[in-house]
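User: Here's a chain of 189 residues. Predict its fold as tokens.
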Amino acid sequence: MESVSEQQFSEWAARLSRSDEKALDELFDKTFEVYVKFAWRFTKDKSSAVDIVQNSFIKLWQIRADLDPSQSLKTYIYRMVKNNALNYLRDNRQHSLQVDELQLADPDAGISEPSEENPLAEHLKKWVEDLPKRQQQVFELSRYDGLTHEEIAGVLQIAPRTVNNHMVAALNTLKDNYENYRQRRKNIA
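Assistant: Prediction complete.
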């Protein structure tokens, strides 16, 4: 989605508000996978993430007349997907508890060996997962989705300054983890 400019999102918003179905098709084709990856971070289930994003686009079409082209459509869709994903998690909490109970019954379920090909990537993934929830969200939206601090603030409904504070804290933690990792590797060699 990096190739999609804010100008393009504004054009899509204007065209959508005029009930241009082709605009919805273009928007969907260009952005669908990015929003699915974002939804997956909440659900950890690809088919649920796909459903959430499809439902978000359906809702977007239903409210198209209310869209304001001066507002960021990209941020608006991220917020819709996030809210739909959180609603999905809330509505499926009982199912999640049953899955967790099954995993507790089999302690080896879901355990995978770290990758021998790129151990640093595996560590980085774990370090990001270990960040406090809000720092993790800010980091992933910035680094994985390429959103600006203002866009992240819109998605998470927090101040841009708060986004910056979370990003600085996350980067400092990751840097410290990397330095510790590098030092351990140096001591082993």
